[in-house]
Specification:
6 helices, alpha+beta
Length: about 110
């Protein structure tokens, strides 16, 4: 899947080991309904409770389908591809810094 291919690309680019498989943390639109605003396309969801952290990545099915058309040559789907890449990159950064390096991760750092 595209999310897994992007994860591998980011990990190779930054020369980091995989902390977690992005596909295991993807949630469906149905699961995301109580957590996100209507119409959300992409979100990394993080909840901390003391030392325990819950993590999920939401990438809408519509967004994924559109991003896939970009990979297949449709320039109109660049926005969708970039949104998927952003979500996966946030996941990779969070799992690498938070899980492997045990460093705090801020919203600001994710956006950089």
């Amino acid at each position: 899947m595209l999310d897994q291919r992007l994860q591998t690309l980011f990990e190779e680019m930054y020369r980091i080991d995989r902390a977690a498989d992005v596909s295991a943390f993807r949630i469906s639109e149905e699961q995301s309904l109580p957590l996100l605003r209507p119409g959300a396309r992409e979100a990394l969801l993080v909840r901390q409770d003391g030392e325990h952290t819950d993590l999920a990545l939401f990438l809408s099915e519509e967004l994924m389908a559109s991003a896939k058309t970009f990979v297949e040559g449709s320039a109109e789907a660049l926005d969708a591809f970039c949104a998927v890449a952003e979500g996966v990159s946030h996941f990779v950064y969070f799992t690498f810094c938070g899980a492997q390096m045990e460093r705090p991760v801020s919203q600001f750092a994710l956006e950089l």
